[in-house]
Amino acid sequence: MAVAGGGSRSAKQANRLVYLLLAYPGGMLVVFFLVPLIMLVVFSVYRNIPGGGWETAFTWDNYVRAFERGLYRDRLVFTLQLSALTALICLAMGYPFTYYLARRASPLVRRIGLAATISTLWLTYVVRSYAWSVLLSSTSGIGRLLFWLGLTERPVGYAPGYVATLIGMVYAFLPFMILSLYGSLRAVDPSMEEASMNLGARPWRTFWHVVLPLSWPGAASGTLLVFLLAMGNYVVPSILGQPAQWTMPVIITNQVMYESNVPFGAAISVVLMAVLGLVLFAAGKLLGAARMNPYPGRRDS
Amino acid sequence: MSQVDLVEVTKTFPGGVKAVDGVSLTVRQGEFLTLLGPSGCGKTTSLRMIAGFEQPDAGRVLIGGRDVTRVPPYERDTGMVFQSLALFPHMSVLDNVLYGLRMRGVSRTEAERRAREMLALVQLSGYEHRRPHQLSGGQRQRVAFARALAVNPSIFLLDEPFAALDAKIRDELQVELRRLQQRVGITTVFVTHNQREAMTLSDRIAVMRDGRIEQIGSPQEIYEDPATVFVAGFVGMTNLFRGHVVERAGRRVRVKTEEGFVVEAELGAGTGNGASKDSAAAGDVAPGKPVTVSVRPESVRLEPRDQDARGGSPAGVDPSGGGQGGIPVTVDLIRFVGELIEYHLYTPGGQEIIGTYQRGQRTLSMGQGGAAIVRFDPKEARVLWR
Ligand SMILES: Nc1ncnc2c1ncn2[C@@H]1O[C@H](COP(=O)(O)OP(=O)(O)O)[C@@H](O)[C@H]1O
Ligand SMILES: [Mg+2]
After folding, report:
1. Could you tell me how far CA B167 lies from the centroid of its own chain?
2. Burial of residue B364, with CB atoms counted within 10 A of its CB: 0-12 exposed, 13-18 middle, 19 or more buried
3. Is A181 or A10 the better-scoring residue by pLDDT?
4. Which atom of ligand 1 is closest in space to residue B15's alpha carbon?
5. C-beta atoms of B72 and A197 within 8 A
6. Which among B74, B90, B99 has CB closest to A294?
7. In percent, how much of chain B has pLDDT > 90?
């Protein structure tokens, strides 16, 4: 009896311990994720009082405004386009570089390359964006260099503007692409390439048929990651862009910080999140299908 | 189906490791040759130089008489099975086997016919559309065989393909590999550190050590006529007695062991073949020279011995030499190993000797702790350089 009772008590204690352990991540999730999300949704149906503050209400007005005004729809489309372009440029620039770093470079070069990549993340976006705005202005840096080289007729300033915004975005997020690709390119066993060559495939065909498909998960997740980071960034477009380059996060910040219209800011945030959710869902479907069948059009599997 | 020649091939890796050191070797047409040796002796590097994945610093590689030393791997026409197998995980079994054929520009229908034929040959019909990770270890192995052989290469190369498999499947696949190799009749170079595997599979074995070849010969030659102490110890179990030559008459040599017992042994054919700098050139074996005598456990014969007072000279043995007195021992342990009975014996000086008998071949009256005398037929004992 005593033994059995003791056993069940210690079992109960173990149970309590498990609950305690689960409470930690659970609590984190609630405090940092669920509560802010609910607040966001709740605020988005409140009514704004022009000139300051808001009042509790249940109104769709904020959403109606977000969809009726062409301005916000255009900004959303622009943000999606800019982010997608950023992600694709990062992929196009990052892949060859990372391929070299991960599969061809000596260990020393590899270490230097990785260190350089990571070190660009030590400075905040703010500092790096201002640095680019100087480099890309008409009075100094790259514009002058191009002029001096005789490539342009006069010093051209790119910042603020679309080109500067894009460059700033690519520069800010390229390291994430490289790090994401690096893992999956390192993971491709060199004997895969050797097996391919042993079977008669030249280096290019080996790359195309073996290395590229096997590194595809890293490329896909890197592209998605950069896309999401770009969608959420407000520092780069607000420093390097003109109003025409402002993305949704800039618009939201303006609404909340400068217009003091918290309910409307919340509403467009909810819309942005919904769109991102859809994009993620579609991407997940696509990637899932790709993993099942990395050779589209082949009849196997 | 071609011959492979390595001519004075040397490979030093950056960092100074001399992985292969002046290896010359001819693999005959249709032959199954095994590179055998301990880990790190340069087997894989040698194989990779035949496949074209490593460039020798010196020497030449010939396939079918053609110098391919500077020919890239995709133009060498070898079929390789990698230690990790290196099956393409993103392709089906069929696509894996098709790969080489497609890379050589064989039409889709013809390639598929050939690939299915190969899969049938390795008994994997019906598995065409599986992915490698959906197969068992043994099945994956067979896909690797089929993929390497589908392109009808002139040379078949295998790097420890069975190392990761358990004993039963390994045995089955060894039989299957040998059957496959003989059916296709392809020149094969097989790499392993497992001497039993080498013995059961090979036409000839090249025993390697520290980047050099110690001896090349048939499994029987290697076993019965090891050229060096290293080969004797690496291929099969053996008992080694260090000593000095007392007397020599033709091939027959009388040796006084370090413990002072006199034994007789013969120079083997392998001893004088000069395959290695370490092998004894027959002419050099003369009285006073330091040598080692190698006796296989199955050549050890045990006779009962009366146990005298401790410390005294064992009965019937003349420790000062001069005759075939044998070596007095005590029985330390008797083990039954499958069909063999294994005796672990100790000499007065503490050297362990192992002797084996076929079960039922003979029963010995002595048990553990008993006294015995070890004798052997000089014809079955080999004199080797130290
Ligand atoms: N790529 C390499 N770089 C440096 N050293 C190597 C390389 N490959 C093999 N070696 C060295 O060369 C020697 C022989 O290696 P290997 O041919 O793989 O031996 P085995 O296959 O017989 O085990 C080892 O000492 C190994 O450490
Ligand atoms: Mg090896």
Report:
1. 18
2. middle
3. A181
4. 4
5. yes
6. B90
7. 65
Residue partners of B138: CB distance under 8 A and separation at least 6: B165, B169, B172, B173
Is residue B116 less than 8 Å (CB to CB) from chain A?
A: no
For helices A61-68 and A262-292, the axis angle rounded to 10 degrees is: 70
B72:A194 CB<8 A: no
CATH level 3 topology of B2-222:
Rossmann fold (3.40.50)
Which residues of B fall within a CB distance of 8 Å from A218? none
Q: Is B353 helix (H, G, I), strand (E, B) or coil?
A: strand
What ipTM, to 2 d.p.?
Answer: 0.85
Question: What is the mean pLDDT of the segment spanning B340-355?
Answer: 91
Residue ranges per structural domain of chain A = 76-292
B257 lines ligand 1 (CB under 6 A): no
B74 contacts in chain A (CB < 8 Å):
197-202
Farthest-apart Cα atoms in chain A, separation? 96
Would you state the pLDDT for residue B160?
Answer: 94
Domain range annotation of chain B? 2-222, 230-386
How far is the CA of A126 from the CAs of A133, A135, A166, A168, A235, in angstroms? Answer: 11, 14, 15, 10, 6
Q: Which fold has domain A76-292?
A: MetI-like fold (1.10.3720)
Alpha-carbon distance of B95 to A293, in angstroms, equals 13
Q: Are B36 and B226 in contact (CB under 8 A)?
A: no
pLDDT bracket for residue B318 (50, 70, 90): very low
Contact B90 A213 (CB under 8 A): yes
What pLDDT shows up at residue A98? 96
**What pLDDT, on the 0 to 100 scale, is given for residue B314?**
45
Claim: this prediction has a pTM higher than 0.90: no
- The amino acid at residue A279 is V
Per-residue pLDDT band at B283 (split at 50, 70, 90): low
Residues of A in contact with B148 (CB under 8 A): 198-199
Judge if the beta carbon of residue B44 lies within 6 A of ligand 1: yes
Q: What is the CATH number of domain B230-386?
A: 2.40.50.140
